[in-house]
Amino acid sequence: MAKFFSLKNFTALSDLHPNMANLKIIGIVIGKTDVKGFPDRKNIGSERYTFSFTIRDSPNHFVNVSSWGSEDYIRSLSDNFKVGECVIIENPLIQRKETEREEKFSPATPSNYKLLLSENHSMVKVCSPYEVDTKLLSLIHLPVKESGDYYSLADIVANGHSLDGRIINVLAAVRSVGEPKYFTTSDRRKGQRCEIKLFDETEPSFTMTCWDNESILLAQSWMARETVIFASDVRINFNKFQNCMAATVISKTIITVNPVNTIVNVYTVEQLKVKALKHEGKADPFYGILYAYISTLNIDDETTKVVRNRCSSCGYIVNEASNTCTVCNKDSSRFKSFFLSFDMLVDLTDHTGTLHSCSLSGNIAEETLGCTINEFLAMTSEQKTKLKWQLLLERSKIYLKLILSHRARGGLKVTILSCKLADPTEASRNLAGQGHT
Ligand SMILES: *[C@@H]1O[C@H](CO)[C@@H](O)[C@H](O)[C@H]1NC(C)=O
Ligand SMILES: *[C@@H]1O[C@H](CO)[C@@H](O)[C@H](O)[C@H]1NC(C)=O
Ligand SMILES: *[C@@H]1O[C@H](CO)[C@@H](O)[C@H](O)[C@H]1NC(C)=O
Fold first, then answer.
1. What's the CA gap between 35 and 71, in Å, rounded?
2. Which ligand sits nearest to residue 48's alpha carbon?
3. 3-state class of 50 per DSSP?
4. For the CA of 70, the nearest ligand
5. Atom of ligand 1 minimally distant from the CA of 114
6. In this predicted structure, what is the pLDDT of residue 337?
7. In sequence order, what are the residues at sequence separation of 6 or more whose Cβ sits closer than 8 angstroms to the Cβ of residue 304?
8. Which domains does the chain have, with CATH numbers?
9. What is the pLDDT of residue 316?
10. 357: Cα separation from own chain's centroid
């Protein structure tokens, strides 16, 4: 197994204070800006470059890091990592932040400090997700704002002009991710734009626009009708041309993908089936927590396929016969960027019944199985059987997304958003009765 970076070997962001020497911190990147160039006042005719990002190492602590320097240095630093990856930073400069002025343009951070990277003294290393504490990885699903602090799309539409220009939080599902468009402005600057359509149970379609490459890149990994986002600090505007309200991702915005902590209702299998019946006719998903165990997991059966190719552009499964992505229509001879991903169906059982064929895929499957896809592919079938029996019949806390679908078994398409061993006292307290219907 891979080397492990434990959080205790690093200085916590909550303990930062100026003049710390030989500082070494670790964090997951939760926001990042594009590289920008500015005329250098000290060196007329040349440009200085900058970009910044935000890292987090615990639910309550995150800090803004910025770097200035030559174009080569800044671009190579920025190209190294993207949102969702973990970085180790050595010897950054710690500075007190000037709250009001800076938070106008950057994410509001709880820390009193900000970090500055210098080309000569600081170092940034990117670490693989399999080397770092899972506590750090799970932060990527934790919104930076109170999980109840958001507007529904209908609230935004209903408030109309009174929200024009306001900066608010939105929780919604992704309906579609548009193709990025590139253009040149009248003053010959390059620009880009990508339109995302969102929806929730109150509103079928709502536009959110990204204007920077980093958020466009992030959005390209979202899956239509699969991904849920908690977007903190997006700007709301009234769009005069389309005569409707719309959101814009700005440099303050931090987007949390699949924020499982907004899911709070606990159900039994039976209650979920009843809820699905009541949900009849609705197209929007519903969510819940289930204390259950995996009762079928075919990972050691040669006849069942558990790994598939996905398109790295849209995340959809590549058609195996034609070797093309039916969503992007990019054929493999021109576009080879596919990646291997877990894609399996498991059964979940509790004392009231079984939910069949629940989808467990991608990173969530890797986290559940505790191994990467490459480690899995290298296993012998005996090792796979052993892994299976480690997981089967272990009581887990499982976050689910459910959508009614005629094509799915039992009329219900169930997707696992997270599956972790349950804390026994918490599980028995929840099994003792209540639950929602
Ligand atoms: C970080 O702070 C700098 C100013 O110190 C600001 O320019 C930048 O936009 C901020 N960005 C992020 C992503 O934190
Ligand atoms: C970094 O180091 C180089 C060479 O040692 C030096 O010329 C340059 O001025 C230093 N830059 C900064 C910002 O200190
Ligand atoms: C954004 O990406 C496009 C296409 O890759 C590139 O031409 C442009 O320079 C990028 N803009 C920034 C600000 O990085």
1. 9
2. 2
3. strand
4. 2
5. 5
6. 67
7. 298, 344
8. 7-141 (2.40.50.140), 153-261 (2.40.50.140), 263-429 (2.40.50.140)
9. 72
10. 24
What whole-number distance in Å separates Cα of residue 291 and Cα of residue 142? 20
Stated length of the chain:
437
| DSSP designation for 22 | S
Q: How far apart are CA 106 and CA 102, in angstroms?
A: 6
- Atom from ligand 1 closest to the CA of residue 116: 5
Contact 196, 225 (CB under 8 A): no
Residue 406 backbone phi and psi in degrees, to 5: -70, -25
Name the closest-CA residue to atom 8, ligand 1: 106
* DSSP alpha helix (H) spans, 45-204: 71-79, 99-103, 134-138, 153-159
Ordered alpha helix ranges (H), 67-133: 71-79, 99-103
Judge whether 384 and 300 are in contact, CB under 8 Å: yes
Structure tokens at 167: 């900066």
| pLDDT over 80 at 67, yes or no | yes
In the chain, the amino acid numbered 60 is: N
Token readout for 380 is 């012998």
- Give helix 362-369 / helix 381-391 axis angle, nearest 10°: 90
Ligand at minimal distance from the CA of 233 is 1
Backbone region of residue 333 per phi and psi (left: phi > 0; alpha: psi in -120 to 50; beta: other values):
alpha
Question: What radius of gyration, in Å, describes the C-alpha atoms of the chain?
Answer: 23
Cα 103 to ligand 2 centroid, rounded to whole Å: 30
Answer with the residue of higher pLDDT: 427 or 342: 342
pLDDT tens across 176-225, in order? 999 999 999 888 888 999 999 999 888 999 999 999 999 999 999 898 88
Using DSSP's 3-state secondary structure scheme, residue 38 falls into: strand
Q: Enter the tokens of residue 210.
A: 């990204």
Residue located nearest, by CA, to atom 7 of ligand 3: 190
